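Sanity check record (used in CI):
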Amino acid sequence: MTLAINIRADNESAGEIERLWDQVAVFEVEASMRALGYRPHFTFAIYDSPAVDEKVAWDAMLAAVAGETQLRIEFKRIRWFEGSPLVLWAEPEANETLARIHAAISAATDPAHCRPHYRPGAWTPHCTLGTAVADERRDEAIAFARAFDRNMEVLFDVADCVVFPPVRIIAERRLPP
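Expected output for 2'-5' RNA ligase family protein:
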């Protein structure tokens, strides 16, 4: 089973991202994000290896968010990760807290056990909107991303540790206002 450390939006403001999930779903083979049964989130680390167990991961997350409050994140752009399938994501405005949490988690666990895209120097803060854009809808999805001209703010208020698939929360802590 795979383990992930995240911060998620578990409040009304998450609807901003969830509406984008529905818009992006028209480009996908299957609606990927609603199928997770999990709220909008930022993932700081994913571990496939049993070398990082649930307790180590959760302890790293707790240490990383010690003293942190809820994060109000602003989004103004939609970007994509190349590949097949194409992945669309909401790009957060620069946020030192996201970078600090990621760095603290990486310092508390051995990044060699983390998936390469989540390691220091490779991690891109992103809130995924769709992971399964159909190859034949790629150009439309990119045009949608380029045309995005909104400014939205989402409150990320819960730190958690999950295993997947399917997504199952194994530990969580609400961040103070």
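The chain has one domain: 2-168. If this sentence no longer matches the regenerated tokens, the check is flagged for review.
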